[in-house]
Amino acid sequence: MCVQSKTSTRQATVTAMHKDDQYIGLLKPWVLTPTTQIDKDKEYFTVATWGTMHSLRIFKFAWLTSKIGKQLHSEGSGLIGETRQVTNWGFSDCRGETFTVWQKREDMASFYRSGAHKNAMISMKDDVSFRVRRVWVKGSDLPTPGDYESNKAFVLRIKRGDFPEAIKKT
Questions:
Q1: For 16, phi and psi rounded to 5 degrees?
Q2: What is the number of other CB atoms lying within 10 angstroms of the CB of residue 163?
Q3: Which of 79, 99, 107, 95 is nearest to 150 (CA)?
Q4: In degrees rounded to 5, what are phi and psi of residue 29?
Q5: What are 48's strand-pairing partners?
Q6: CA 28, 87, 147: angle at the middle one, nearest 5?
Q7: Per-residue buried b or exposed e for 40-62, using 16+ beta carbons within 10 Å of the residue's own CB
Q8: How do the pLDDT tens digits run along the chain, 170 residues long?
Q9: In what helix (H) or strand (E) does residue 48 lie, and over which residues does it extend?
């Protein structure tokens, strides 16, 4: 089998895994940025990232994401709130997911291209197969901090495709 065919098969498999993944496991509590004022009627730009990697890569992934968390929660990042989870489906399938809500799409883009996040993306580009879902979420749909059930319901709604897709600007 040629390399391109193996790569195409792997990408199709990962895409199918992402599409079918409705699992909620050790979901971290919803963290709301302390100074944020939520407008219940406003739509906020929301990003769900999903990645699968070999379990031997999880330690590097965890180290890098701890650095990203500091940047993510820094003053003026534009972050409204976030949650995440890591699940292990076997030796060759460890999954990391993030769910972030932003004041503006531009805030997320700025974060994506800077500092710890950019370094992690470069460092892990050959280790993690990522998929991204971008949606619009009303303030009234955000989970309540400290309420596991509302957090779980929010994440499941994103995974099911219940929110309008935020088409990537070109």
A1: -65, -40
A2: 19
A3: 99
A4: -60, 150
A5: 99, 133
A6: 25
A7: eeeebbbbbbbbbbeeebbeebe
A8: 555 665 666 667 666 666 667 767 778 889 888 878 899 999 999 999 988 888 888 888 888 888 888 888 877 789 999 988 887 777 778 888 889 999 999 999 998 888 888 988 898 888 888 889 999 999 999 999 989 999 999 999 999 999 999 987 66
A9: strand 43-53
Q: SS3 of 75, please? A: coil
pTM: predicted TM-score of the whole model, two decimal places: 0.84
The H or E element that residue 32 is part of is: strand 31-32
Residue with tokens 């700025």: 110
> Residue type for 45, please?
F
Nearest to 149 by CA among 32, 20, 24, 22: 24
Q: Tell me the one-letter amino acid at 32.
A: L
